[in-house]
Amino acid sequence: MKRIFKNVKLEKGYTCVVSPKNSELKYIEFGRVFLPEKNDEYAGETGNREVVLTIFGGKCSIQVETATQKVSYNSIGYRRDVFSGKPTMVYLPPKVEYRIIAESQVEIGVSMAPSNSRSPPILVKPEDVMENQVGAWNWKRTVYTSIGENVKAQRLLVGETFNPPGNWSSYPPHKHDRKGPSEMPLEEVYFFKVKPPNGFGLQRIYTSPEDEEPFDEIFLLENDATVVIPRGYHPVVAAPGYQLYYLWVLAGEERKYGAWSDDPNHGWLRNCL
Predict the structure, then answer these.
(1) 7: Cβ–Cβ under 8 A, 6 or more apart, which residues?
(2) By the 8 A CB rule, do 87 and 160 touch?
(3) Is the pTM of this model over 0.85?
(4) Distance (Å, whole) CA 180 – CA 159
(5) For the chain, what is the domain count?
(6) Assign residue 145 a region: left if phi > 0, alpha if psi is -120 to 50, beta otherwise?
(7) CATH number for 37
(8) What is the mean pLDDT of each run of 10 residues along the chain (273 residues)?
(9) Sheet containing 97-102: which strands, arranged edge to edge?
(10) How far apart are CA 194 and CA 52, in angstroms?
Protein backbone atom coordinates (compact mmCIF):
# COMPACT_ATOMS: atom_id res chain seq x y z
CA MET A 1 0.00 0.00 0.00
CA LYS A 2 0.92 3.65 -0.34
CA ARG A 3 3.42 4.84 2.30
CA ILE A 4 3.98 8.49 1.35
CA PHE A 5 1.30 11.15 0.99
CA LYS A 6 2.17 14.41 -0.77
CA ASN A 7 0.29 17.36 -2.23
CA VAL A 8 -2.70 16.80 0.04
CA LYS A 9 -4.97 19.79 -0.56
CA LEU A 10 -5.46 21.66 2.69
CA GLU A 11 -9.06 22.85 3.09
CA LYS A 12 -10.39 25.20 5.75
CA GLY A 13 -11.20 23.05 8.77
CA TYR A 14 -9.97 19.47 9.17
CA THR A 15 -8.28 17.47 6.40
CA CYS A 16 -7.52 13.79 7.02
CA VAL A 17 -4.15 12.81 5.56
CA VAL A 18 -3.60 9.18 6.63
CA SER A 19 -5.66 6.64 8.56
CA PRO A 20 -6.30 2.89 8.66
CA LYS A 21 -8.66 3.44 5.73
CA ASN A 22 -5.97 4.51 3.25
CA SER A 23 -2.80 2.90 4.61
CA GLU A 24 -1.28 -0.04 6.49
CA LEU A 25 -1.89 1.70 9.80
CA LYS A 26 -3.92 -0.08 12.45
CA TYR A 27 -4.25 2.67 15.05
CA ILE A 28 -3.16 6.13 13.91
CA GLU A 29 -5.13 8.74 12.06
CA PHE A 30 -3.29 11.96 11.25
CA GLY A 31 -4.71 15.11 9.72
CA ARG A 32 -4.43 18.88 9.82
CA VAL A 33 -6.70 21.71 10.88
CA PHE A 34 -6.21 24.92 8.90
CA LEU A 35 -7.94 28.15 9.88
CA PRO A 36 -6.80 30.90 7.49
CA GLU A 37 -8.22 33.95 9.25
CA LYS A 38 -8.68 35.33 12.74
CA ASN A 39 -11.95 34.21 14.38
CA ASP A 40 -12.28 31.17 12.10
CA GLU A 41 -13.46 28.18 14.13
CA TYR A 42 -13.32 24.39 13.98
CA ALA A 43 -15.43 22.13 16.22
CA GLY A 44 -14.45 18.49 16.76
CA GLU A 45 -15.03 15.58 19.09
CA THR A 46 -12.72 12.77 20.11
CA GLY A 47 -15.32 9.96 20.23
CA ASN A 48 -13.62 6.68 21.15
CA ARG A 49 -10.12 8.04 20.48
CA GLU A 50 -7.48 10.06 22.27
CA VAL A 51 -6.27 13.11 20.34
CA VAL A 52 -3.14 15.24 20.35
CA LEU A 53 -3.34 18.73 18.84
CA THR A 54 0.04 20.15 17.76
CA ILE A 55 0.14 23.84 16.90
CA PHE A 56 2.53 24.10 13.96
CA GLY A 57 2.22 27.88 13.66
CA GLY A 58 -0.10 30.69 14.67
CA LYS A 59 -2.13 31.39 17.78
CA CYS A 60 -5.52 30.14 18.88
CA SER A 61 -7.77 29.37 21.82
CA ILE A 62 -9.07 25.85 22.44
CA GLN A 63 -12.22 25.22 24.42
CA VAL A 64 -12.66 21.68 25.78
CA GLU A 65 -15.78 20.10 27.26
CA THR A 66 -15.74 16.73 29.03
CA ALA A 67 -18.58 15.00 30.87
CA THR A 68 -17.53 16.72 34.10
CA GLN A 69 -15.75 19.96 33.22
CA LYS A 70 -15.11 22.76 30.79
CA VAL A 71 -11.56 23.96 30.16
CA SER A 72 -10.33 26.89 28.08
CA TYR A 73 -6.76 27.25 26.85
CA ASN A 74 -6.60 30.89 25.78
CA SER A 75 -4.14 32.47 23.36
CA ILE A 76 -1.86 29.45 22.97
CA GLY A 77 0.68 28.84 20.24
CA TYR A 78 3.91 30.70 20.76
CA ARG A 79 5.79 30.18 17.51
CA ARG A 80 5.47 31.58 14.01
CA ASP A 81 6.25 28.22 12.43
CA VAL A 82 7.79 24.88 13.44
CA PHE A 83 11.32 26.27 13.05
CA SER A 84 10.65 29.10 15.54
CA GLY A 85 10.64 27.36 18.91
CA LYS A 86 9.31 24.48 20.93
CA PRO A 87 5.80 23.17 20.27
CA THR A 88 2.53 23.67 22.13
CA MET A 89 0.40 20.51 22.27
CA VAL A 90 -2.95 19.61 23.82
CA TYR A 91 -3.84 16.04 24.84
CA LEU A 92 -7.54 15.17 24.76
CA PRO A 93 -9.00 11.89 26.09
CA PRO A 94 -11.99 10.09 24.55
CA LYS A 95 -15.54 11.46 24.76
CA VAL A 96 -14.52 15.11 24.61
CA GLU A 97 -15.87 17.97 22.50
CA TYR A 98 -13.48 20.74 21.54
CA ARG A 99 -13.53 24.00 19.64
CA ILE A 100 -10.54 25.77 18.09
CA ILE A 101 -10.86 29.55 17.62
CA ALA A 102 -8.16 31.18 15.51
CA GLU A 103 -6.46 34.31 16.80
CA SER A 104 -4.36 34.49 13.65
CA GLN A 105 -3.92 32.13 10.73
CA VAL A 106 -3.23 28.80 12.41
CA GLU A 107 -2.22 25.30 11.35
CA ILE A 108 -2.61 22.37 13.74
CA GLY A 109 -1.65 18.70 13.45
CA VAL A 110 -4.29 16.27 14.72
CA SER A 111 -3.02 12.84 15.84
CA MET A 112 -5.56 10.21 16.92
CA ALA A 113 -5.65 6.60 18.15
CA PRO A 114 -8.32 4.34 19.73
CA SER A 115 -8.33 4.68 23.50
CA ASN A 116 -10.26 4.28 26.73
CA SER A 117 -7.94 6.62 28.63
CA ARG A 118 -9.39 8.40 31.65
CA SER A 119 -6.73 11.09 31.69
CA PRO A 120 -7.96 14.67 31.92
CA PRO A 121 -7.20 17.10 29.08
CA ILE A 122 -3.62 18.37 29.34
CA LEU A 123 -1.95 21.46 27.89
CA VAL A 124 1.76 20.89 27.23
CA LYS A 125 3.42 24.29 26.90
CA PRO A 126 6.85 24.88 25.30
CA GLU A 127 8.49 25.08 28.74
CA ASP A 128 7.08 21.63 29.57
CA VAL A 129 8.66 19.94 26.54
CA MET A 130 11.59 17.56 27.09
CA GLU A 131 14.50 18.54 24.82
CA ASN A 132 17.34 16.17 23.87
CA GLN A 133 20.37 16.65 21.66
CA VAL A 134 20.81 13.25 20.02
CA GLY A 135 23.52 11.62 17.90
CA ALA A 136 27.05 12.59 16.88
CA TRP A 137 28.88 14.12 13.92
CA ASN A 138 26.51 14.47 10.96
CA TRP A 139 23.67 12.62 12.66
CA LYS A 140 23.23 15.19 15.42
CA ARG A 141 19.67 16.46 15.77
CA THR A 142 17.27 17.98 18.28
CA VAL A 143 14.35 15.92 19.60
CA TYR A 144 11.41 17.40 21.48
CA THR A 145 9.15 14.97 23.36
CA SER A 146 5.82 16.57 24.29
CA ILE A 147 3.46 13.65 24.85
CA GLY A 148 5.53 11.06 26.70
CA GLU A 149 5.65 9.84 30.27
CA ASN A 150 4.35 13.24 31.40
CA VAL A 151 0.90 12.38 29.98
CA LYS A 152 -1.21 9.37 30.98
CA ALA A 153 -2.21 8.52 27.42
CA GLN A 154 -3.07 4.96 26.48
CA ARG A 155 -1.42 4.72 23.07
CA LEU A 156 -0.10 8.00 21.65
CA LEU A 157 3.48 9.23 21.92
CA VAL A 158 4.09 12.50 20.08
CA GLY A 159 7.10 14.75 19.55
CA GLU A 160 9.22 16.60 17.01
CA THR A 161 12.67 16.15 15.44
CA PHE A 162 14.84 18.82 13.77
CA ASN A 163 17.64 17.86 11.36
CA PRO A 164 20.25 20.52 10.60
CA PRO A 165 21.15 20.76 6.90
CA GLY A 166 22.82 17.59 5.65
CA ASN A 167 22.24 15.68 8.90
CA TRP A 168 20.59 12.33 9.55
CA SER A 169 18.05 11.28 12.16
CA SER A 170 16.35 8.06 13.23
CA TYR A 171 19.98 7.00 13.11
CA PRO A 172 21.51 4.52 13.63
CA PRO A 173 18.57 2.96 11.79
CA HIS A 174 16.14 1.44 14.26
CA LYS A 175 12.81 -0.35 14.18
CA HIS A 176 9.95 -1.12 16.56
CA ASP A 177 7.76 -3.75 14.95
CA ARG A 178 8.25 -6.89 17.08
CA LYS A 179 8.02 -7.74 20.74
CA GLY A 180 11.42 -8.53 22.23
CA PRO A 181 13.78 -7.74 25.11
CA SER A 182 14.29 -4.14 23.99
CA GLU A 183 11.63 -3.72 21.32
CA MET A 184 7.89 -3.13 21.25
CA PRO A 185 5.54 -3.04 18.23
CA LEU A 186 4.67 0.60 17.51
CA GLU A 187 3.47 1.96 14.18
CA GLU A 188 4.55 5.50 13.33
CA VAL A 189 3.69 8.50 11.17
CA TYR A 190 6.15 11.27 10.20
CA PHE A 191 4.89 14.66 8.98
CA PHE A 192 7.59 16.81 7.40
CA LYS A 193 8.31 20.49 6.84
CA VAL A 194 11.38 21.92 5.10
CA LYS A 195 13.11 25.29 5.46
CA PRO A 196 13.32 26.89 2.91
CA PRO A 197 10.17 25.09 1.70
CA ASN A 198 11.56 24.37 -1.78
CA GLY A 199 14.12 21.99 -0.24
CA PHE A 200 13.94 18.25 0.31
CA GLY A 201 15.14 15.27 2.26
CA LEU A 202 15.15 11.50 1.81
CA GLN A 203 13.87 8.63 3.90
CA ARG A 204 14.65 4.95 3.55
CA ILE A 205 12.26 2.36 5.02
CA TYR A 206 13.47 -1.21 4.87
CA THR A 207 13.34 -4.57 6.56
CA SER A 208 16.01 -7.22 6.98
CA PRO A 209 16.29 -9.61 4.01
CA GLU A 210 15.09 -12.42 6.29
CA ASP A 211 11.76 -10.70 6.92
CA GLU A 212 8.69 -12.71 5.87
CA GLU A 213 7.63 -9.85 3.58
CA PRO A 214 10.82 -7.85 2.93
CA PHE A 215 10.78 -4.40 1.36
CA ASP A 216 13.26 -1.58 0.79
CA GLU A 217 11.96 1.82 -0.34
CA ILE A 218 13.31 5.37 -0.58
CA PHE A 219 11.03 8.41 -0.43
CA LEU A 220 11.57 11.99 -1.59
CA LEU A 221 10.55 14.20 1.33
CA GLU A 222 9.16 17.59 0.39
CA ASN A 223 7.39 20.24 2.44
CA ASP A 224 4.16 18.90 4.04
CA ALA A 225 4.84 15.27 3.07
CA THR A 226 3.52 12.54 5.38
CA VAL A 227 5.13 9.10 5.60
CA VAL A 228 3.57 5.97 7.11
CA ILE A 229 5.94 3.58 8.90
CA PRO A 230 4.07 0.35 9.66
CA ARG A 231 7.33 -1.54 10.28
CA GLY A 232 11.00 -1.64 9.36
CA TYR A 233 14.06 0.59 9.84
CA HIS A 234 13.42 4.21 8.84
CA PRO A 235 16.40 6.66 8.76
CA VAL A 236 15.96 10.23 7.45
CA VAL A 237 18.41 12.75 5.96
CA ALA A 238 18.09 16.47 5.14
CA ALA A 239 19.56 17.81 1.92
CA PRO A 240 22.52 20.17 2.39
CA GLY A 241 21.34 23.75 2.87
CA TYR A 242 17.89 22.79 4.13
CA GLN A 243 16.56 22.28 7.64
CA LEU A 244 14.21 19.33 7.99
CA TYR A 245 11.46 19.02 10.60
CA TYR A 246 9.11 16.17 11.34
CA LEU A 247 6.32 15.53 13.77
CA TRP A 248 6.45 11.90 14.90
CA VAL A 249 3.42 10.01 16.14
CA LEU A 250 3.72 6.54 17.67
CA ALA A 251 0.96 4.15 18.72
CA GLY A 252 0.59 0.45 19.53
CA GLU A 253 -0.90 -2.06 21.93
CA GLU A 254 1.62 -1.04 24.57
CA ARG A 255 3.10 2.41 25.09
CA LYS A 256 6.80 2.90 25.74
CA TYR A 257 9.13 5.42 24.11
CA GLY A 258 12.59 4.12 23.21
CA ALA A 259 11.50 0.48 22.87
CA TRP A 260 13.33 -0.15 19.61
CA SER A 261 16.24 -2.17 18.21
CA ASP A 262 19.03 -0.97 15.93
CA ASP A 263 19.91 -2.44 12.56
CA PRO A 264 22.72 -4.83 13.60
CA ASN A 265 24.79 -3.69 10.60
CA HIS A 266 24.92 -0.15 11.96
CA GLY A 267 24.45 -0.50 15.71
CA TRP A 268 28.21 0.04 16.24
CA LEU A 269 27.57 3.74 15.65
CA ARG A 270 26.18 3.98 19.18
CA ASN A 271 29.83 3.71 20.32
CA CYS A 272 30.56 7.04 18.60
CA LEU A 273 28.35 8.98 20.99
Answers:
(1) none
(2) yes
(3) yes
(4) 24
(5) 1
(6) beta
(7) 2.60.120.10
(8) 93 97 98 98 98 98 96 96 98 98 98 97 98 97 97 97 98 95 95 98 95 94 98 98 98 92 94 78
(9) 41-45, 97-102, 60-65, 70-76
(10) 22
